[in-house]
Fold each of these.
Amino acid sequence: MKYTFKEYKPSKLMENHLNLGGANPDGEEINLTNLYFTRGGKPFIGVMGEYHFSRDSRGNWKRELAKMKAGGITIVSTYIFWIYHEETEGVYDFSGDNDVRAFIEDARETGLDVVIRVGPWAHGECRNGGLPDWLVQKPFEIRTNNDEYLALVRKWYSRIYDEVKGLFYKDGGNIIAVQLENEYIDGADHLAELKKIAVECGLVAPLYTVTGWNSVYGAEIPVDEVVPVFGAYVTSPWSRHTRPLGPTPHFVFNRMRNDCAIGADLIEGKDDNGWRLPYERYPFATCELGGGIQPTHHRRPIVSPMDTYALSLVKLGSGNNLIGYYMYHGGTNKIGKLSTFNESRATGYPNDYPILSYDFQAPLSEYGEVREQYRLLNMLHLFAADFGDVLAPMEAVDSVISPEPDDNSLLRYGMRTDGESGFVFINHHQQYGALDDLTDVVIDTGKVEFPPIDVKGDVSFFMPFNMRVGGNTLRYATAQPLCTDGGAYFFAKIPNVDAEYEFADGKKFTNVNDFTYNNTRIVTLDYDRARFLRRLGGVLHIGGGCDLYTMGGSVYSAENGEYECEKWNGVGFESFTINQPERIASVTIEDVSEAPFIPKYKEQLSIGGEREITWKKITADGEGGFAEINVEGDVLQLYADGELAADRFYNGETWRVPCSLIYGKECYIAVSEMKDDFYREF
């Protein structure tokens, strides 16, 4: 069957139309048009990953940031939670794990730009949305232009500036953007005032972002002062009920950015106040593509690696020009001197979250373990780094066939093009269900007709047409472009599809993994090898079943052990060995007949009513490796020497806890009785 697209109608390019943009001391500028972001006058696609410094240990930052960079992240975004730094009014803490300056400097040393999300309200499943209790208890309205509130905001912003001064892009630093507030959807005047205060306090960056989602008409924002950014998650654990949810629309190509308004790229009409977000003035940018999801007590979904990868690929094919993940790296909440820092119903929020765990099922876990989506996503990130200047000006074009999210029979496809060349995107993944296999699929872009392919199994991919490779025009490839190195271009073989390359002169290569055409080298990696392809220090590496990263000029594996790896030398891949021995601790878990003590956070063990509590004793004979805990219950709490060290809401999967949390301590697991009062997938 032949699949075609609607007519491509190029948008009018707008430049210098917003009060945004800025230069560094070298004269390089970061700016934006209505279609894409620019750096040094060149279009680029940033890849942004959320990682909260205060939800990890300072000693881990450099290593974890290095893993993020190896995974293709170019920008790290991070909340600065007010409650973490001023739990008691007037008493500030920017030391240790709260040292935001040290974190930004670590990011700079790693080669990452930074977006600081300064709030004041941040959410992030943090207590009071990150606002200190003392502020919430003040006798005036917060999150408004109330003078008393704004005076405290000014003090907070000034205190942040004291910590990060000299690190902004204009100073030669790596802070390129500031996010104001979060999920503030109907107060342009307040957002404008926050930007004014931020600038006056010294928080000056090329870009200021705000949440763009709201009703079908979009959030009310100060139009010329900020960039609206959007999000998409594969499921909604904040839904109030415990029933299964229907298929998400985010696995179907659609140019609409607003999660609340799936349907068309531009909303017709206005709300009752005459408002419609002028999407056409801004590039499509995301800050919250779900790298996973945080479970609530009443809903505990499991996000698969392909869920995350397909979500990002579909949004890229739908026009996304800032790939932003929330979360990219999980974390662990701290416990304050006055309260825990997690969101809960006890503080007036609709959801209960774990006290400590903010793992989020992210590509990098709260303990730094690599998940499969980290590998899959990097295939997109490599492409964005090397071909972002080509893709960014290309606009998304709708397919003629537009399947509904619950239709498993129709092809899900999209295109980005400049009218002559471009990329075709295909998603054959739907959460919680298989799509029908399709044979003899012929994609006709209007400029190039691809040969028939079969779209089978759980896959998402994209293919180029009229792509410039070296001095040649690649008419089409039924393989996914990855990156380039000198005169070599690297592609990934698409599962169940023959890799075929045809050039403008009709010369064709089929299932040839390595060939040269007119002095241009084409290397096709099988899908499994492509998952482990990394650019480290400017050199391409392939981990032999391990995830490589570089730190301090040396190459490491995220996993300990011995691995045979490869490095591209400009001619071919040469082998080398990574050997990181580790003594894996032996772990024992045994029943305990009586409670060893009264659990410090018993209220978490009785969410929804009283529950029977049982206990396990856990020991480890060393610090190496992870304890695998397969214990069923509602809530699991791990206590080390009487202090809460880890927790989780049971979701049917193995709980992995570092043995370093257990070794040398007296440790117990409190397990509350599981009842049929939450949504489950097990």
Amino acid sequence: MRQRHKILLTLGVMLASVALAAGLYHWHLKAVNEAYMAQLVTQGEPMSLAQVLPPPVPPSENSADIFLRAAEMLNADASLIHSNDVMAMLLVAPGKALVCSSQPLALGYESTNTWGELACAVENNHSSLDSLRLIVRHPGLDFKINYLHGMGDSMEFTNLHLGELKKAGGYLTAAAVLALHHGHITNAVEHQRTLLALIFAMKNQRFVISELVRMAMLSSAQKINWEILQAAGPTESQLAWLQSDWERLDFIQGCLDALIADRAASEVILKKWRQSAALVRAHFELEKQGREKMGDPTEFASPLEKNTVILKVFLWQQWWSYPDEMRSLKGYNVLLDTARLLATNESFRVAIGSQQAQLASLEITNIPDDIIALTHSFFVQSDFHCILSKSIVSLAGTFDRLLIAETTRQMTIAALALQRFKLAQGHFPTQLAELVPAYVTSIPRDPVDGQPLRYRLLADGNFLLYSVGENGVDDGGNPARADRDSDKSMNWLDRQNLDWVWPQPVARPALPKDL
């Protein structure tokens, strides 16, 4: 009997020791993270959602109600615009684009329509388009987003109305292309300015997904702007308005604000997950559904697997989440340092190179190369040791999209200023420096290396305007793909292009030998 008591006592002491050690380890991990958080606060880093809320939009500037009424009308539309985007600036070869507004038919990504059919579709939506144009005078959107609860608690992506905003951009693009086809330059400029006003008004949403949608809408805006510059009739004042609209867009600051807010929101979510195993399991169910929607096989968990997940969730809540949180916080610091460096250095090659090295030191690597892979990476099955820090991989990929957006912005500003110069002088300048200070305050920069955009006046009186592209090498304005055996891209800012060249217009779809 005594032997049994000794064994039980020994087992009890061992279990108590293990529990005590586990508890002490839990509190040690928690204390280390809290000390690091306190250090960040001391350094001036805003770590709570209350500190990073966007400033209130003055009622006189808030067009949220106007937009939502217009969006409701667009959602009820069943015209061809609803089912198929209308194309502008169709790239037909590297550095060569088709002026879609001057074609015999209205080109779409999945269909072709007559201009009369497009005109009927635009007319069916004139009320909503007229409402959207009011936003130019009141460029603010406050959808009363409840940031303080974090994502998933009365704060969902649907509250951001990103789908409706992107759809509105598509309708404005279609209306602008139609106006250009009929020579109605003023209408086209108004639609373009409305699209740019929407992009500007989204800047205070402070979500990375919002910034990505803004960048996607900017691509459409650039194509319309290019078509306007190919048209006969835009006045210097109209081009000056457009240039001003482009100049006030600031995607680098928008990305920085979104990352700061994302870090604070992730801490709110983390606190909830540590208190509720059900919320963690719901996250994994969401990931599973995401993988299935992306085309992965339907997943079925056995009773053993379900019990294993329950155990892993407990281990994650008590211990694994703390090193994961630390790695995530340090990853955010790297991303924020990158954005801050871009705001001062202007060279994406320097900033992104530094970012990659720092993330590698944290063992956060394998950033996807394209937006589809980037999206899919968000839904890959989680390792319980990096539930939080894996998001840093996706967030780091945002800087590639940011580079494209900033290059688009700088080159469009330059192209507008060049056309304004020509309207005044009768010819394009021999160098970009001649634009300063009458048309730009400083020479537009190439975001890749921070140097002035490359520019050359051609013998025929036209110009060559280009960025050195992602490889950072000046290839003399050669827009060809580095991998010449691969299919040509329909994106003038393709990552494989040697240089990113402002497209030259072609009057009709051309065969390669014509180019």
Amino acid sequence: MARRAKPDGDTRSLSREAVLRFLAENPGRATKRDLAKAFGVKGDERYVLTDILADLQSEGVLEGSRKSYRRPGELPTVGVLEIRARDEDGGLLADPVGWDEEERGLRPRFAVRGNASGPAVGIGDRVLAQLTYDGDESPSAKVIRKLERRTARAIGIFRETPGGGGRVEPVERRQLEYTIPPGSTRDAQDGDLVEVEPSEHQRRSLPTGAIAEVIGAMATERAISTIALHAHSIPHVFPAGVIAEADKAGPATMESREDWRDLPLVTIDPRDAKDHDDAVHSRPDEDPSNPGGFVVTVAIADVSWYVRPGTKLDAEARLRGNSVYFPDRVVPMLPERISNDLCSLREGVDRPALAVRMVFDATGEKRKHDFFRIMMRSHAKLAYEDAQAAIDGRPNTVAPDIVETVLRPLWAAYRALVAARQGRQPLDLDLPERKILLNEDGRVDRVIVPDRLDAHRLIEEMMIQANVAAAETLERRKQALIYRAHDAPSMAKMESLRDFLRTLELPLAKSGNLRPAHFNGILKAVRGTEHESLVNEVVLRSQSQANYSPENIGHFGLNLMRYAHFTSPIRRYADLVVHRALVSALGLGPGGITREEEVDLERTAEEISQAERRAMAAERDTVDRLIAQHLASRLNEEFDGRITGVTRAGLFVQLPAYGADGFVPISTLGRDYFHYDEAAHTLVGERTRLGYRLGDTVEVKLVEAAPLQGSMRFEMLTEPRELPGTTGSFHKVRPRSSRPGRPPRAKNVAGKVRKKR
């Protein structure tokens, strides 16, 4: 694997040892770009460097990402801190911003050292600081510069004070408390959840502010989702300049477009969808050389026409990264003037689009594809349920001519694509998605698992094919882009999975040869058995997390070599970048990608990957808080549950009827002393050898619910059982944190197209 290269004028071999030596000698130059420059990596050598870094990470010798690699245990020497509190002597204490406790351990607190020549700073300020770790002493920080004070709104519970005005208690301990002067309360009532606009100039011991919005009683879903927005720092109020740009936008022209308004494209979406960014059409291929083939067209809203690089709209969209979905509302990436109006493919209305026309043979294999910039007109707005009912011959509201000329050809093409998909064998995990339904008061009514229809699968498969076509075209044109990347599982995770499967006497191929088909074979072997849910859960956790990257590593879960998100530019910034790349590469007119964007693709990919994870966490936290609020009045009731996490501190149990989980402390499991077996995902009694395993169905009693924290505590009612396949031996495992966290969350590994609500 060793290659010859010239780092900084010297000759050095590109090897594992050389990479580790460079990182040790150059702690301030630890990005992938730094490494490539230092070793003179070009062409195919990029893949060698990528493999070396991946191997070192999988073995636990290296941590981090392309943005910053480091040896395990290494701590940053410069970082962004937020000043949170004072110590007993009045000194300032600061916490690092964006600290990942799962990756780096517990968050340190830095003592801010005095700096006579430095800027004046106080509680609430963000600073760039030089960080020092003094052995057993508390870490300290020297301020380099003060960063711009954030004036974003805060959130809290309003409390009235005698004589008028009040104060706002934070909903999280790390947030500030605000004083609200009389006349600035907006008639908020004691106990209301409110948003606070901090004052620019603070002259009191407590920061002051004005109530910007009264959200209302804490029990409503809107209040709970607003907490998640603030807790995860998700932008949700569009600046006036962004709204002004959106309001000035007008209908697109025919410039650089083909007129496809007569083609009967249709949208198929959830019944309550407000924006429609994709439309589909299919017809038999009339080419005699392709008997039984199909021509499938996917048209996607042309957001790149309206959102141009360098505009305020573009800057805000990049900051948000994606739309965020809650049970009661959507926090959009783009203002409604763009997302729900000018770019929404409304029935009977002219709309600009980028379209890909794909030709498939009778077996579902693609023969060719082409992209076009068009003006289209949707011929029908269909809900999934209505489209499926029309195909099944059940009562529906779809016009008969649409059924015959549009839907039946679509389903015929879909059947061919399904055959090709089965041959490709993407990862086939059984992961039901729950949906929370609210009543008129904004409270939880019930939780359902929507039916998974062929109509859903049809749209999903056609979007996947369009995404593949986009990546292939841009690669062929040698145009830089952002891929949707999903790496193969790491060696460490595969060894852990192999150890677990061995307890069930299930074999797994060696890591170097693993493909999704191997996992599918395991899942098929346990289908219908008591281990089905357990194995699905463990296989899911063994997968890498999908992200965005300017480097193509393929999509392991979908078993595709080239894959880029193209089909949802209204709600994902990655798709907008791909649209711009297509416009430039194919010479389709204005709105293409700029040279500055191309140079910055790595940073863009990293930022929108973080925004996606942030959105997923906010959505999950909202569900947890909603269910805790919903069940808070049902203490001491008994529920059916399933163990979804096993830790040395206890068990996480999910209530399948609600899709939320709670915790059973290990100290409450009984008189036996329970040991944690990491490989087998079990807690086993030392004396009885009975225990609990990930995936077990259990019965629990709800003993505590904390809606603000989104947490529930259960008492285990199901007795421990004999666990076949366990060794009965106990071993110590390296602690990863001094406090229990949630079980690992489901990762976005399937690459499914998430439809609008």
